[in-house]
Fold each of these.
Amino acid sequence: MARLNKKLLAVAMPIALATLLSPSAQAVCSSEPMLGGICWMATDFCPTGYIQANGTALAVQANEALYSLLSTTYGGDSKDFKVPDLRGRSVVGLGSYYNGLVLSGQRRGAATTRMTYDNLPQHYHRIDPATFVLTGTLSANKTAPTSNSPVGRYPAISSVSAMQSYGVGIKPVAMAGGIIAGDLSGMTGETSSAGNGASIDINAPRLGLTACIAIKGYYPPRP
């Protein structure tokens, strides 16, 4: 009995090793593929029994077995269906993870992004009041004032003095240039805008290969 077991083991081990090392157990395009399997080629074409996984539409009637596996998960209708489109895309496993839920055929991610206010860390822009330069025109009136409210009005001469700020007979007139000293308090404002808002490339380093999907082969048994 012990001798028989040793003989069986000697036969079984090479078979098991060959199975593990066979192309069907690797991410290569096998000559005996599982229907709907994805593989990669360094060439610009896919082997016989495969087509490129580029979103091609196939007729349901001519590919009923493959349609029974894919349905319209990757696009299509009752007459045709599409294979996965892996051009310029990487793949990710299905199911729940820390940042959400990945569904079959779901497109996720983007090649670029734009930063918004919410993406920026808290920070401050320094404003130096000593460098402020204020410009403007101050108008005045040569007649006696009729109201002590400054709203919508100009500075005028005193009602009890013959002294006038300006003697030009035009009203209102612009005051001559000069410097007015004083303190500013409670001032609000903002800095001038900066930046162009260009998109940020978030593509990781990648290498282009030909993605293939098996349209002929063994029907994969469900567990």
Amino acid sequence: SFFFFPPSRGPCFMLVRYIQDSTWWDEHLSEENTRFLRKLVPEEYKAQTTSKLCPLKDEPWPREAWKPGTRRVGVIAIKLGMMPIWTKTGEKHAVTLLQVQDCHVIKYTPKEDYDGKSATLMVGGKNVSPFRVRVCFSEH
């Protein structure tokens, strides 16, 4: 940890925390297998994303009409930035640019197992190498 006194303010503390993430890969694979999988996994994800089996290539599901009391899952996106746009009348508006990648359901919990009132979803926002996934997320 780190401690200093800025000239115009009171004491300030900065705590540095070192976290060592462990993944299943770190604990259960030999060096040779780890090297092999580090080479194979990116190729596999690229093939999955571009293949016809990818859920993004499916036809869109029919959209149900919204009714009071219905709930929908949000979308996860990466903020690319802000930019101005102008309307036909010349008004300037600031808009946020978002990139929606491969959103998918990671875990579904039925309402009986959650709180008895509503179900829950854990939604993932993009494909990630399993080498970077914590053990708690790889269980889903």
Amino acid sequence: MEQILKIKIYKSYYFLFILTLFFCSSKLQAKEIELDELILTKKEKHEIENWTTKCRNANTATDVIRDAFNGDRAGLYALGMCYANGWQGFVIDIEKANFCFSLSASLGFAPALDQLKVIYLEDKRDPYLAMVYLNLAASYGHSELVPSYHKLRSKLIGFTGVEKGRRITQEIERIAEEKKQLISKNLTELKNPKNQKYLNPIVLQGNISRSDFIYNDEYWESIIDGERAHG
């Protein structure tokens, strides 16, 4: 079986950050966990630098929007950076930024998947969904994230006990696999020439974060306590 392993990249791409997980009762107790940050590949760095340069240039900013929504996942990521940082004529809008990151992630762009991981860690305080996106970012060409995933997986089992820990890690990996299949479907549909200028209908319907609201505290508690069957 293929191993599957949330943005605010308003800071450096290359750093270790400390995540404090706040949980009570049968969930994780507050602990500090070190997670390795995603390191951009040369290809990803080149793509992002190319697009962010366009974002900063008033003459090409409209091109960014047009091209991004024609199906360029790095373009969508860069557009998210424009909204997140207020580059050249863009009004800072975190909601729009996160939406662009989500669309980029839905096309399998690992930096965007990693961004969703950070959103769930830092903003939404949901380490379980963070693990889902950490798993995905690792599976899309970033093996440097695999140790962090297994470290966090082991910690989770250690905090909750073997039986409960296995239940929740199995659910995390099931959700990650489900999202990976949706990404593959999106990419396959975009290969069809007639779909290449119609990103919105394809990815809006296949947005991998669209159903994340389902996975709330009650959902995870029911998984931990064995009250809900996987899937």
Amino acid sequence: MNIKIKGEVFILWRAVYIWIRNWSGIVPFFAFPKEIRKVIYTTNTIESVNRQIRKIIKNKGVFPDDGSVRFFV
């Protein structure tokens, strides 16, 4: 087995280990109906975008008005 395959196997087993370690917190999530899970996925995506926007704004510093923030983002 070459090094690349060993690394990929390690990554997969690490992911499995994380799921097993957190199983009691993961299982209740699957008890929600499909529609609710979809909303949760969407919420996570929105939070990710908001986090990226905050990072951009923080790095930029000061904006003269709200319009310049919208233009920058």
